[in-house]
Amino acid sequence: MNVPIKDLSTQAETYLNIGDSKQIQKLLESRKKYSICLTTDFVAPKWGGVETHGYQLASCLIERGHKVIMISSMYRHVREGIRVMGNGLKVYHLPLLPYYNNDVALIAIFNIIPILRQIFIREHVDLCHSHLTTSITGAMVLVVAKSMGLKTCMTEHSHFTYNELDFISLNKIIKWYLKDIDAGIAVSHACKDNFSLRAKISPAIIYTIPNAVDTEKFQPKPSLRFPLKTINIVCVSRLAQKKGIDMLIDIIPDVLAKHPNAYFIIGGDGPKFALL
């Protein structure tokens, strides 16, 4: 029997107060299992934050008993068709030609409709969840999904400017294909504000879910710290303005003035590398 989510939260709070872990487990098991379609142009074997996020999200949803598939573009004419990853995730690499740095697919909305429709029917998809508004494949999937009455969601992983030609065009496109989405997710409050303004989406349906670190897998070892007796500040990122590298560079002198034993370890490359 499926229990509504709002009823689950009330019952779970009651069981938490009395410490009844068995009842909480039964409530979790009673939740409906969904068939979820994740979609983006950025999947393995490509490397990056969105690629890692999508894989980990799929793994967690599969562990909770949901069925998860992923729809993406083909990778450099090497990966095309269906691949099954180690966590059980089935990935559909659509025959879409890449046009930008082998990362983003060329738009082909009318040619791809029959394929997407067949995938949705075959996999009994309930929900389509796209990642990153620059993904053309994600845009096409959401348009077709909404036309078939499926629930749709978009996660924005970054923020973009309003006055550059490339992003002016992008912002006009996302206003079109995101106007009917059911929910949005942003990785920070600043990202939420930026996403809402660019896509003209009500902030009421955008939820802030910050990026997280699995502390069971990543634990510090003070014995390996080098140099000794220092405060190590680590930043591993693409060295670009929207990653906040300008602000990081600006605060380094102030931090060193107050804490001479601070030690910055910066990994990455990008247009702001010269500022370091």
What does this structure look like?
Helix 1 runs antiparallel to helix 2 and helix 4 packs across helix 5. The chain has an eight-stranded mixed beta sheet, sandwiched between helices. It has a two-stranded antiparallel sheet with strand order 5-6. A two-stranded parallel ribbon has the order 11-12. The chain folds into three domains: 32 residues, no CATH class; 176 residues, Glycogen Phosphorylase B (Rossmann fold, 3-Layer(aba) Sandwich), CATH 3.40.50.2000; 54 residues, no CATH class. Strand 3 and strand 4 form a beta hairpin. 37% of the residues lie in helices and 20% in strands. The chain has 276 residues and is an alpha/beta fold.
What are the salient characteristics of this protein?
single chain; 276 residues; alpha/beta; two-stranded antiparallel sheet; 8 helices; 37% helix; disordered N terminus
The helix count comes to: 8
Q: What's the CATH topology label of the largest domain?
A: Rossmann fold
Distance between the termini: 59 Å
Q: What is the subunit organization of this protein?
A: single chain
Structural class: alpha/beta
Rg (CA only)? 21 Å
Q: How would you state the average pLDDT, rounded? A: 84
Strand content: 15-25%
CATH superfamily of the largest domain: Glycogen Phosphorylase B
Count of DSSP E strands? 12
- Sheet having the most strands: 8 strands, mixed
CATH architecture of the largest domain: 3-Layer(aba) Sandwich
Query: Strand-and-helix sequence, N→C?
Result: HHEHEEEEEHEHEHEHEEHE
Count of all domains: 3
CATH class of the largest domain: Alpha Beta
